[in-house]
Every structure is written in structure tokens, then in C-alpha cells.
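Reopening closed ticket. The problem is back. First fold of the pair:
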Amino acid sequence: MSESVEALVPKLVKIQQELRAPKNQFNSFGKYNYRSCEDILEAVKPLCHAAGVVLTISDEVVQVGERVYVKATAVLLAESGEQLQAVAYAREAAERKGMDASQITGTASSYARKYALNGLFCIDDAKDADAQGTPPAHPQRQQQPQSHPRAPQQPPQQSPPPEPPPYKQQSSANDGLRKAFHATGTELYGKGWDAKRKELCVHYHVESSNDLTAEAIHHIIDGMKKKLATAAGNGG
């Protein structure tokens, strides 16, 4: 790390320590709270101003194999020219019901920008306890005593970023199901299974296939078995 960049690091550390971006958005379908890219920007802009730095975010459409991704880069820039950055990707869906092409790119951009900001400012985006089907563990989320159900927080009147599939908010998968998942995937895709798993993680908005829930894995296995049956029928 150069001396010029080292001078910027303390400012970034201060921003990371002071940044508070609570999950104020509410997904009425999945019944969980989340934060948007706009929430993070609203919270971090005053801190950047106080530290004398500028935050910029840029998008770039890149192709990896046959897939198209939106690459978002968040850059923290000091007046003297030093900079630090973080990058995140989100794959554009081939199609999405009710959206035109520009909206599909826009939702991928919002998702990629959010996680670029998460990386730059070390925002803890761990799974919510209520997203796993259990009562909230954090005191700030409890609006009523534990003996009464928590009243859901109403979302502000603004358009939220793309919501993760409902599979992520369901039950966890056991070891046996995960073994069947990997065995079926290896049988269908062979050496390409690792790359396919990464695509599935992007589609289901999880960081690792270990985060996929039982419902999601059952859904994926059913699809892979249908492909294997079709291939066997064509070959026979």
C-alpha cells in the first residue's frame, strides 16, 4: 500500500465506524426487512462530506462466457487524488415477467451497486433472524415485548431494489439433501458444475451454495433431474 493510499485509510475507517444503515425496507411477500442502495447512500453521504472525501459509483456491462453481468465499482476519492475501491457483480436475467430490457439492467445495477457499497464500507449484510423463520434476535428490531408478535415495519413510499426469491427465507437443508444436490449437479454438468453453482448463487441471491435453503435445493434438483431424463430419452 502506497503512502498516499495510507493517508486515506484512516478516513475510511472512521466512516465505517460511524456508518449506520439500518434495514428500513420491508418485503411484504417474504416478511423480512432489508436495506437498499439508496438507504446506504443517504447514510454515508454526510460522513463522506465530513471526512473530506467523495464517493462515486459507476456501472459497466461485462460478458463472462455466455452470461452478461453488470459490474459496479464504488470509489472513495480524496481531494489529493488517493482512492480506494470495491467491485461487485450482478447477472442480468434473460427475462423477467413484467419488465422490459432497461428495467432488467436497472435492477441488476441496483443490486451490484448495493454490494459494492457493502464491500467498501464493510456493511454487515448477514441474514436476518426473521428471514430464517425465527424471532428477531436483535433488540433494535423488537418493537413490542417478546410475549407479543412483532409488528412489521412499513416500508417508505419508494421503489425497492429487486427482491430475493422466497426460497431464501425458508428452512435450512440437511447434509443428505446437499449431497443429493451436488451429486445430481455433477452428473448433469460434469466439470461445469462449479460454474453452474455460481450462477445459481447469483440467481438465488446467496453468497454460497451452502446458503441455499431446502426449498431452493429441492426446486433445483427437480429441474436437473428433468434435464437428465430428457437427455437419457434423446440418447436412447
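Second fold of the pair, where the issue appears:
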Amino acid sequence: MEWNVKTVDAHPNEEGHDDVIYNVHWSVSKVDGEYSASSYGTQSIDTSDLSNFKPFDEVTSEMVKGWVIDAMGEEEVANLEANLDSQIENEKNPTSITKTLDS
């Protein structure tokens, strides 16, 4: 599963810290050969404890991905991946198709 977590919302100043990330706009995608699936959403990040605060210019996508996964929890992340797998399976073996009549 490939994550994109590059877009965030931040409070300009919170408890004396600048640019405190509190919300992440995420998207995930998965590819299986010629088939692919994706999903997107937002995840709130708990900012009640800023004792391990990192300045914005030191924050990496990998860090933010970890924050999102931690906030979602293992079960939600597993459900998300299962949903992507299901989307791909439905592409491989569709139960419905759309057709256009000639006349």
C-alpha cells in the first residue's frame, strides 16, 4: 500500500509552537499488475501533548504516515487495505459491467 500524506492542516501557533499539524489529508493506492485501487480521507492528529514537537521544516512524510497509522489504529489500516484488495478483485472479476446499445 502506497501512502501520500503530503498535505496537512496546521495551527499557525499552538502552545508556543509554530505550524502545529493537527489534520492530515491522506491517500493510499495499491497496484496489482494492470489493476489498481485507491482511497483518500483525512485523519485528525492529537495535539494535546506537544512534548515531542518537531518543527515543521523537520517533519517528513514518513513521520506523518506513522502519525496517521497510529491515529487510525491497526484495525482501521487493515480494513483500508482489505478494501483496496476488494476493489482490485472487483476489477479482475466484475459482477456488473456497463454496456451501450447501438441504437
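Update: turned out to be a display glitch only; the data is intact. The two ends are 43 Å apart (CA to CA). The mean pLDDT is 97. Please close again.
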